[in-house]
What we know:
It is a single chain. By secondary structure, the chain is an alpha/beta fold. It has a single domain, classed as Rossmann fold (3-Layer(aba) Sandwich), CATH 3.40.50.1980. Helix content is about 30%, strand content about 20%. The strands form 2 sheets. Strands 3-2-1-4-5 form a 5-stranded parallel sheet, with helices on both faces. A two-stranded antiparallel sheet has the order 6-7. Helix 5 links the parallel strand 4 and strand 5.
Amino acid sequence: MKDTAKKNTEMILALDLDGVITESPEFFSAWSHSWPGPVMVITFRSNRQKAIDDLQDRNIRYDELILVDRFDAKAEVIASKNIAIYVDDQPEMLKNVAPPVHVMLFRNEGNFDFDDRRWMLSQDTGKLMF
């Protein structure tokens, strides 16, 4: 019997809105428009129309917008949608994302002390190596 199921080989990019897209809209606009596969936005918000307006104002191309209402919900969505790369600015949102998803922590004033030149992490998200 011949297997006729088509294997999904598209690389899905997912981005956080607040603290990521809002911090560098020109970069994420260019990246979203040049990405060869689907782009999703996963955000911890409750107002869908405000999120849509913010993405439109920043010229972000996206195929799907997903709003979540708890931290671990992002990891669940990422797993269920077969996302390949996810970018967020909060380590709390990244810690439950399982391999093989590639994650990127986007630096901003909420997670990095620019005077001290050190990341700001909680006991749950950081581990001192020495």
